[in-house]
């Protein structure tokens, strides 16, 4: 049965579009829902149910109708990234590239100088702009030290997460620094050293005189698809940073 109109129920968001809208993007996973071998609808009044967050599905359909209809200037970085995640799920390469280009253009317009981002005054976080100073702070600290990579924070557009991460730290037992050094030198020369673009967070233990934990910087594609999982992982990292069983806790599912 060749049904001209398609109704979608995506996370309880209801949408209807013409079959031709879906067929414009033959490489999209949405095309599979209307293929005869998969389409189980009896009439155009039946819905195709997709178990996803439907917040941006209307935007996705509008983009498929007319690619010129999408204007992202007033969108937040988080919303654009969420839209990219959904576009990736539906295999809409054109939409992914458009969002990615917009984020890159926005970042280019903004200053690349870390001075333009300030940690709120009531937070105990310091920006460190020199790799040699960072090494000295690590080697002289009596408490564990969390090091956040400003380069990675900017890369994934997660500046807004930084304040949340700080709230999960016990500053009586850990220090928190954000490394904004632009060189590719390792932070400290030990058995586990990192360049500032290699990680999101790293934890230094003065008793062991080395890093005991880290969250590596993933590919852009992986971060987009696992964005909320990474947010949870980063918050857990900060929350457990002072714990003696840190390594075991971070290995727990």
From TrEMBL:
Residues 4-107 form the BTB domain. Coiled coil: none annotated. It comes from the Eukaryota. GO terms for biological process: protein homooligomerization. This is BTB/POZ domain-containing protein KCTD2. SMART domains: BTB (SM00225). It holds the Pfam family BTB_2.
